[in-house]
Amino acid sequence: MDEDCSRRGESQAPTFALSPHEATINVRQSMTAICQSCEVAQATVTDKCDDPVEPYLLCGSCHARLKARSLRPLEWYNLAKRHGWYQYFLHDDFYDDDGTAWQPEADVIEAERFPIPDFASVCSNPETLLDWSITRWHLRDQEFLAWSIFSPDTKLRVLSNRFSATANSGIRSLILEIIGKTGDASNVAFVRYAWREYPENISLGSLVHASATCLPFEEGFERAISALASLEPSQRRNSMYCLGYFGSPAGLDWIEKNCSQPITESWGYLAAMCRPSWARLTAWLSRGRPLSLVAIDTLEAIARLRTPLLKERRVRLEQAPSFTELEAVLREYECRDPVPRVQKKVSGLLGNFERITNT
Ligand SMILES: [Zn+2]
Q1: Domain span at 26
Q2: pLDDT, tens digit, for every residue of 335-359?
Q3: How far is CA 214 from CA 39, 51, 73, 221, 246, in A?
Q4: How many distinct structural domains can be found in the chain?
Q5: Rounded to the nearest whole angstrom, what is the distance from the C-alpha of residue 93 to the centroid of ligand 1?
Q6: Which of 43, 184, 188, 290 counts the highest number of beta carbons within 10 A?
C-alpha cells in the first residue's frame, strides 16, 4: 500500500521530480490541508498545471501519480469531484469515468482496493450526489431523478453554496444544468444571482437553460437575447441553440431578425426547438434565402433528430400539412432554387414524411 495513504497526517517527500514552473511547495497550506486525491496524507504540493485559480493540493505520491496518469480510481474521483473530470490530467483520454487509468505511465498500485463510490451510496445525500454528478461525463436520468427527490430548499442550499464557492466554470455550468432540469420558480433568486456573475466562469448555454426553467419567460428570454447580441457572430452562432430551451415561437422571431450567412444546420436545429408551424415555414420558403434554407433545415432537423437536445425536446411540426401539400410546396421551392443542396434535402424530406408530420 502506498505510504501516503497509510500514515494519516504524515507528510511524504515528493517521489516525482517537480519542475519549477509546474509545481510549488506551499508551506502554509501543507500545515493545514489534506491531499485532495487520497484524502489521507497532508498536502505538500500546490500544482497549478490544470487550473491556476484553483490548483491541485496534493501529497507527493498522489502528485507523482497524477503526472504519470496512474491515479487509483478513488484518487481520480476525489480530484474529479473538486476540479472536474475534463481537466487535462483527469480527462477521458486518460481515465474512464469509473477512474480506471487508460494509459498509465507507471503501474497503478492496488487499484482494486480504491474503487470509486457506487451510485447507491451517494445518491441520498445532496453533497455526495453533487460530488458524483461533477465526476460524470454526462448526467443521465438516474442523476436527475435523484436530484428531483430532494426538497427545493435542500437542493438550492447545496447547489448555490457550491456555485458561489468555486470559480470553476465546468462545475458552475453543471450546477446550472441540474437547476435547468430539476428546478422551478423557487430558484429565481439564485438564477438572477448567476446572471450577475455572467460572463465570468459561466457558460451561456447552461445559464439560459436554468433561466428558461426558473425565470418568468419575458425576463429569461430578454436576458438570453441580450447576451447573444453581445457576442461576436461566430460565438453567437455557436451559442444560439440555447434559445431552444424556451421552446417558444419567440425564437423563430429572433431567427428572422438575426439570420445571416453562413447558413449552417444550427439555425434549423434552433428553429425546430421553437415550435415551428407549417405556416411559418412556408412563409420562410416564400421569402427565399437565407430563411428558405433555414426552413428546409428545420424540417430536416425534425425528421432526423440528430442532436441529443433535439431528441430530448421531442420537437415536432405544428399544424403539419398533408403529404400532397408538403410535396407541392417543396417542389415549387426546388424549382426556384435548383441547387444540389436543396434538391438532395427535398428528396430526403419527402422520404421522411411520416417523421415530419408525426403520422
Ligand atoms: Zn495523496
Answers
A1: 3-106
A2: 999 999 999 999 999 999 999 987 6
A3: 37, 31, 36, 11, 11
A4: 3
A5: 22
A6: 43
